[in-house]
Structure formats: structure tokens, C-alpha cells
Design a protein that fits this description.
This protein is mainly alpha-helical and 423 residues long. It has 14 helices and no strands.
């Protein structure tokens, strides 16, 4: 999965979200939220759709793993290009083009055969990767929401909506595939994405003049920020890769337990639902625990869930999804918030590396899990590989905590000296 956005972004013209009139303003907000929910839905549906895709295309687990590569590499390239795209074009044009790409990708994936279908999956993955940061930019700059809740709360709401879409996807896709063929389901999703593009084009006004381009605060890169960027990128690479592996491969493993088709998506739904619950509780938890402790506790809890999956039953996989989701929920937003706090204004220049690294992890790690399963490791070998990723995440988080603590001590020591020199 392309990773979900957690940041306040550079300002966009109020006209971009239809701030000129009350009804138009709120209709634009509603469409943006619905569009963001659709990105969550389409991000999470690949895993639940994998058994039907594998059956239709007659492919092995190793070949099926290439769907994850195509999906997340498309998002990876789009994430790298998003900043330049927003500078070159308006946010309105970018988000409309993103949903057109999603629509075309799903329409093509409904009918293409192996291996050409990988290109269609990459196309809708690129659309998702471009839509997420662009909608974040627009939502963070929506004046009405900022006046009522503040930009951070507005982004929390839109992340919650993304999670609702991701939560609904596994069960919804399982139920739809039980009634309709895979091409019919993908054609339906393509139609919804196309209608979303039309809705965005009619509710989001054209931006005016220079305000269409986000402003970027420039500052020289300091060594602590280079180290922090590298470590956080590694952490998010491992996190998104592990998250995508659990959500993506679990439905296939459930199918092989002999569970009915209508239950295949239950563990993944529990996983996304637990992530959503953890992110809802996150602000309250952080009142009592520091960010690093919260991240390390989440990693430990997710590891317990993964160990539970080793029993191999349907109930064990459901428990794995719920426990691992509770552990994973706070990791991404908390890690990104720590990065922004420490990097300061430099975050606006280096955040693309974090999103790109996260997308790359979502492509590489699930493929490696599929390869391990295919060469004889079985699903328990896949679980062990994900556990190795969580162990590496813990080590990286300890390094981040050490680096940020050292940096803060340097700043604390430097401030009195600067104040004395001014006096």
C-alpha cells in the first residue's frame, strides 16, 4: 500500500476548494472526502481480489506477488512526481487526472490477461499515489475546516475517512466477488472512479494566478536532518511493506484454510478496522507516552499478532489481523509527526523521500513474502519474514530516538549561547 498522508501541506488558493459560497464550499469538501475514501478502498482491495485474479489468470503465488510490485511501484513513481506535478499544474487538474488514471487502470484490469494486466494495475496504482498527496494539499488548505478545527484536525479527519474506505474494501470485495465476476467488479470500480473525476471537476474551482503553486520554505540541509530522513525512510519502507503484506496475503492464506468465500476478507477487515481504532485512540495515548515508546509498543503488539497467525486456523488469522492492526495503527502517523517536528521547515523539501520509500516498501516486501512462500517456506515462512521486518523496525526506531535525543540536547545547549551573544 501506498502509504496514507499525515502532514499539513503547502497552501492552495481558497478557490481551489470552492470557498466562494457556502453550498459550493461544503459540496466540494464532501466530494473530496468521498474521493479520499475511494483511494482507501482501492488501496486495500488488491489483497481480497487476489484469489479471484489468480483463479482467472491461472498464475502462481510468485506471479501473483508481481501485482503488488506493479501497484506500489506505480504509486512510488507518482509520489516522487507529485511535488513537481503540483508546481507545474494546478491541484485541481492533478487530482482530476489522478482519478481518470484510476478509472482507466481498473477498466483495463477488468479485461486484460497476464502479464499485460500488470500495466493496468500500475496505472491505477499511480493514480492512487498521485491522488493522495494532492487531496492532502487541498484539504490542509481548506479555509472553512481550518477555521473550525485547525489544519491538523482536518487532516486527521481525512485520514479517518481514508481508513473507512480501506476498512470497507476487504468485506465489500469479498461479497461482490461472491455475486459477480472479477471483471464486472473492476468495471464497477472504474465507473465510480470516473464519476468521482467528473464530480471533482464540477465542484473544485480553477485556481487563480500564482496562488496555484504551493510555496516551499527553503533551508540548507543539516546533517541531523539527512540522518533523520534516511532513518525515517527506512522505518516507513519496512512499515508499509509489512502492512501491505499482512493485508495483501492474509486473504489468500484464509482461502486455503477452506473458509467460505464470503469470509475471506474478514481478517483483512479486522486489520484495517484495528488500524483505524488505534489512530482514533492515538492522541489520547500520546498524552501519557512519548512518541518513541508508543511506536515501540506498537511494534511489540503487532509482533504478538503475527505470532498468533502461526497457528494457521481461520480464527488465528482473524486474531492476527486485529492484534497486528492495533499495533500498527499509530506507527506511521507518529513517525511522520516526529520527523516533521525535528526537521522543521526542511520537512517540506524532504517529505517526498519518505512517501517514495514507503511506496517502494509496499512493492518489494510483499513480493519477497510471496517468493518465500513459493520456494517452500509456506505461509509460516511468510509470517516469520514479516516478523523479521518488525524486529528491524524496532532497531531503526531506537536509532531515530537516539538521533533525535542527541540533536535536541545540542539545540538546548546552543540556545543559551545564542541568547548570551545577542545580549
Amino acid at each position: 500500500m501506498m502509504p496514507q498522508p499525515k502532514l499539513a501541506a503547502a497552501p492552495v488558493s481558497p478557490a481551489a476548494v470552492g470557498d466562494s459560497g457556502g453550498g459550493q464550499k461544503w459540496s466540494a469538501v464532501t466530494v473530496l472526502y468521498a474521493a479520499f475514501a475511494l483511494t482507501g478502498f482501492t488501496t486495500a482491495l488488491l489483497g481480497p481480489a487476489l484469489p479471484a485474479l489468480s483463479e482467472r489468470l491461472h498464475i502462481s503465488d510468485s506471479q501473483a506477488g508481481r501485482f503488488f510490485i506493479a501497484h506500489f511501484l506505480g504509486g512510488f513513481v507518482a509520489a516522487l512526481a507529485s511535488s513537481a506535478t503540483l508546481r507545474r499544474f494546478s491541484a485541481r487538474r492533478t487530482v482530476i487526472a489522478a482519478f481518470i488514471a484510476i478509472s482507466c487502470g481498473f477498466a483495463a484490469a477488468a479485461f486484460l490477461e497476464w502479464p499485460i494486466i500488470l500495466g493496468a494495475v500500475a496505472l491505477y496504482g499511480a493514480g492512487i499515489g498521485l491522488a493522495i498527496p494532492t487531496i492532502t494539499v487541498i484539504a490542509a488548505s481548506q479555509p472553512s475546516l481550518r477555521r473550525r478545527t485547525g489544519s491538523a484536525a482536518a487532516l486527521n479527519w481525512i485520514n479517518f475517512v481514508w481508513g473507512l474506505g480501506a476498512l470497507a474494501a476487504p468485506s465489500a470485495i469479498s461479497l461482490m466477488l461472491a455475486q459477480w465476476s472479477q471483471p464486472a467488479v473492476y468495471a464497477w470500480i472504474a465507473a465510480v472512479a470516473g464519476l468521482t473525476a467528473i464530480a471533482l471537476s464540477t465542484t473544485i474551482e480553477r485556481e487563480r494566478d500564482a496562488s496555484r503553486r504551493p510555496s516551499v520554505v527553503r533551508r540548507s540541509v543539516s546533517p541531523p536532518n539527512i540522518l533523520l530522513t534516511a532513518l525515517t525512510s527506512i522505518l516507513l519502507f519496512l512499515y508499509v511493506g509489512s502492512e501491505a503484506s499482512i493485508a495483501g496475503w492474509t486473504p489468500l492464506w484464509v482461502a486455503r484454510t477452506g473458509a467460505p468465500k464470503t469470509l475471506i476478507g474478514i481478517p483483512a477487515s479486522c486489520f484495517w478496522g484495528a488500524i483505524l481504532a488505534a489512530r482514533f485512540m492515538g492522541p489520547f495515548i500520546l498524552r501519557y507516552f512519548g512518541p518513541s515508546y508508543a511506536i515501540l509498543a506498537g511494534i511489540a503488539l503487532s509482533s504478538v499478532g503475527l505470532i498468533t497467525a502461526a497457528f494457521g486456523s481461520f480464527v488465528a488469522l482473524v486474531a492476527c489481523g486485529a492484534i497486528a492492526g492495533l499495533g500498527f495503527g499509530m506507527i506511521f502517523p507518529t513517525a511522520v509527526s516526529v520527523f516533521c517536528d525535528r526537521a522543521g521547515s526542511e520537512a517540506s523539501r524532504t517529505i517526498n523521500f519518505l512517501f517514495a520509500s514507503a511506496g517502494l516498501g509496499g512493492a518489494v516486501v510483499p513480493f519477497c513474502i510471496g517468493w518465500i512462500v513459493s520456494i517452500g517456506g509456506g505461509f509460516r515462512g511468510g509470517i516469520l519474514a514479516i516478523l523479521c521486518c518488525t524486529a528491524a523496525m524496532a532497531l531503526v526506531e531506537v536509532a531515530i530516538a537516539s538521533a533525535t535525543t542527541s540533536y535536541c540536547r545540542q539545540v538546548d545547549a546552543e540556545v543559551p549561547r545564542v541568547l548570551r551573544s545577542r545580549n
